[in-house]
Amino acid sequence: MLAMMNEHSLRVLEFNKILDRIAAYASFEPGKERILAMRPTSDLGEARLWMQETEEARRLLSQQPDLHLGGVHDLRPLLALAERGGVLAPTELLQIKTTVLRARKLRQVLLANRRLAPALVDWGERLLDLEHLAASISRAISERGEVLDSASSRLARLRAEVRTLQDRVLARVQRIARNPDNAPYLQEAIVTQRRGRYVLPVRAEFKGKIPGIVHDQSGSGATLFIEPFGIVELNNTLRQREAEEEEEVARILRELSEQIAQEALYLHTTLDTLAGLDAILARAKYADDIHANAPELLGFHRGPEFKPEQHPGVILSFHQARHPLLDPATVVPINFHFGQDYFIIVITGPNTGGKTVSLKTAGLLTLMAQAGIPIPAAPGSRLTVFEHVFADIGDEQSIEQNLSTFSSHMTNIVDILDAATPHSLVLLDELGAGTDPEEGSALARALLQHLRDHGIPAAATTHYSEVKLFAHATEGITNASVEFDLETLSPTYELTIGLPGRSNALAIARRLGLPNSIVDLAESFIQPESLTADALLAEIREARDAARRARKRAEAHERIVAAKEAELREQLAHIEEARRAVLNEAREEAQAELETLREAIRKVRARLGKGGPSQHERFLQEAEKALKARKAAEKPLPETVESEPEGILGPPRPGDIVWIESLYSSGEVEDVWEEEREAEVRVGSFRVTLPFDQIDIKERPQVEPTSATERLRPHYTKSPGMELDLRGMRVDEALDALDEYIDKAYLAELPWIRIIHGKGTGALRKVVRDFLRNHPLVSRYRSGEEGEGGDGVTVAYFVTGS
In sequence order, what are the beta bridge partners of 336? Predict the structure, then answer.
């Protein structure tokens, strides 16, 4: 693992809090320690390997119930004791046994899944098979932690003798206790033990009535526990055998402990491997719980597509990214990315509007990805693996007490500039804040210019208008902004890259009731260029919002058209099938009639005999000749309904009309896989995958479809899944996602879908069900059953095709 940042940046970006959450999934202490010691790597190969291991673990966890570390213990103290010559207790030996057996089971599971989890196979091979050690412990220790009689022949003999002596002593002392003559002297007619010897409870005043040795007395002194002289010799023999038994047990435990010490090196290796696997499984479980996706990890590549010349070839593209430490039900996802023509982003916007959260989200997700942790972002996210990630984010509460805000920030920035390279990521919050605005603005622009000239990828937040103008005018730098809703006077937390943030102070003051005369006077103090720029920004945002609404309407229309076209295609397929059935039936009937007529002619000819040509025979000959002439004159029905032209040579293409001999039918090619030499063909309402040699190309479109046509043609993709999780989305996002999901599920011919909206206040559930109630593709819906999620889930059923 290569160091890539100091502890200050780790703390600022809250990476350690992510590790704390992952550590909660660990099964035992070494795994937890391994997680807390994790640090992101700057090595591309290592980062990809870690991410692959996590993703393979996620797949295995969903399919292999035996992939767990139950029964694994932290053996480090036990191994240290054994290595020092100490003797392990039976329960401690059982911990070693269960750990060894679980390691052996994990090894079997991982090696059996080479194709599904090739990266984890290496971990399986590192788990040493120490079954002989587990077998030695099993022969000597029971599952209850007791040394078995079978541990040695001497122990078995000694325990048999002990049991015999115990029976003899107990029988003799019971006879004394049950003797009626002794009843007045005993507190109770029972036999008990003191210091391992059988005794009777005798009343203190009758001490001499039952001669023997006093071993103990009750707290009140009223009862003496006396060993009768008649059993002393037997008790002595019993204690001697018990002492020999204890010595033999100690010898057995000592031998097992010595065996553990001899295998300590291999046990340490196995324990270390189990800790590594525990960390991988914990990362996988955490990723599943936060609905994370693995991003594509890339190296730096300076291609001609990157501008300006200082561009380091960095790629950072997070789609619908969420800060993993914020409430997923309320956090607003953002899109954060560097472009081919910029590698520095300047974020502006109102206070508490989400600027710092956007900065932290980009930094934290980068660290997570480079530590092998899938990120809470949409599939398709990508990033370059950075050598260093530097961050200066914080306020007065996080700054050294002996420095001012400005001095503390400058100290951090100086350290960052000394170490940053074009392969680093630099994150700076409130650039130039804490000092005179004019000087702070100038310093912020100079720092951005320095980062740009040295090709160092960066993102920074600021309030200075001059910095916004500088970013707009400087190649390689772009503006971004967090949105603010003037109607509600609250931030939307949405990040827009490419547009600077507007100054909302005067608009907010006016909305809050500040007299117009004061607001107007304040506007007169502002340079006209700034007011014009704000007005232009407002117009741009309005145009953008209108374009978004128009695009949504167009997409909705396209989905409707695609669904209608799919329905028409299916109806045409049914009509074509019916046509073929009718023609085939007519051909079969006509053939049957011809055969019947020929047979009738042959029978009549046979009855006429062998005489010369009679009038009847001449009539039959003329009839037969007329029948042949009629058959030749008629257009014959084809042997197969499809009268196919000669095939087109070459591999099939999407859109080709093909003949499938094995199905006695025609279809349309949907997709082609050249390497496998296979094609997916739609036949009626069904899709089949066939080799090239089983299909004949009969018709190929003369004109390639335009992009618009391609969009209108339904694209039958794989099923989007039977379940859609809307938790954490806002109402408009949830409805957009639900609408798109219903279209895909319907086209994939799913019978029903399961929509997870959660219980909460019930607002999202009501909106979802109102939407389903009015949707043309949904026939009915119901609440989830008890095992399906109850009121937190809605199950919807589609209308059946006509």
Answer: 318
